[in-house]
């Protein structure tokens, strides 16, 4: 961590008097919150990958795309019936398939779209995580214990909202 944050959070901060809190405990709280945020981001990414894989497997089965041809589906493309139909139109001749028009019912298309919007919103944290340098600068601005505790509470709230 940058020196300024180390000095601020050290157990032996200069003049640790009755008005200042234990910096080591605050450091542990901050590190705990940052670790929880990292774990939640990893869980979200795994869940999104599993959901994408499931949706793609269903679509590939629906369009009878052989396993080797599934690698041709772009990694950044949305798993929609239309996207898989486009894949079959472009590469279907490789395995003797012809594209069938996308037959996703409007209700299912709306549901898929709402799920994709929800996932997109869930993926973007309400508060973008700050870098260590940004946290150090922010905490260095704290003049009192109350200001510091307020900043820590905001981080905890943001981490809980990201969950």
What is the element layout, followed by pairings?
Elements: H1 3-9, H2 23-62, H3 81-91, H4 106-123, H5 132-140, H6 145-162
Helix pairs in contact: 2-6
Description:
The chain is 63% helix and 0% strand. By secondary structure, it is an all-alpha fold. It has one domain (23-162). α2 packs parallel to α6. Residues 15-19 have low confidence and may be disordered.
* Largest sheet features: none
Number of E-state strands: 0
What proportion strand? under 5%
Whole-number total of structural domains: 1
Structural class: mainly alpha
- The low-confidence runs, each spanning 5 or more residues with pLDDT under 50, are 15-19
Could you give the distance between the termini?
25 Å
The sequence of SSEs as H and E is HHHHHH
Helix content: 55-70%
Q: Categorize the overall geometry.
A: elongated
Average predicted local confidence, pLDDT: 77
Enumerate how many helices there are, as a single number: 6
Spatial extent as radius of gyration: 25 Å
Tags for this model:
mainly alpha; 163 residues; 6 helices
Short structural description:
The protein has 163 residues and is mainly α. It has six helices and no strands.
